[in-house]
Amino acid sequence: MLYIEDADDGLWLSLVEVLGEREICDMVLCLYPDSEEDDFPEPFFAPQEQEPFERVTVYPDESEPPCSGRVRASAALVDLLRQDIGEFEDWGDSLLLYPPRERRWVAAYIPHRRVVLVQDVRLKDFLDAAGIDASTEPPRGWSDT
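^ thats the sequence. predicted structure below, dont judge the formating
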């Protein structure tokens, strides 16, 4: 696992751009567990049926927050989301990237923790070259459980 500490909304969007150059990804927004499906901000939307995505956050009561349908990560999406910089924490629990048709996330942004996670440690040199400082060491006080 790679950790990008003190991440902000702008860094997350930069990561989306960098990873989007490497492979096609879909972005999904997971809300907080007590959220309603009509709480999804545009361009995210409530799917007709919840897809069994791997989640990044596990809650003590094992509840699973509702997740949006897939939105293709693209330059147009990044430009649209740049208008909402600073609001991601209000939107929900996490923003995640998934390869098309896959349910295991490749990168996740947890706004209230100010951290980005990247599953594949082999991407470290690629991210470093793009100016994104990723570490294999978890942030102080971090717990994967």
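The beta strands are 2-5, 26-30, 71-72, 94-98, 107-110, 115-118.
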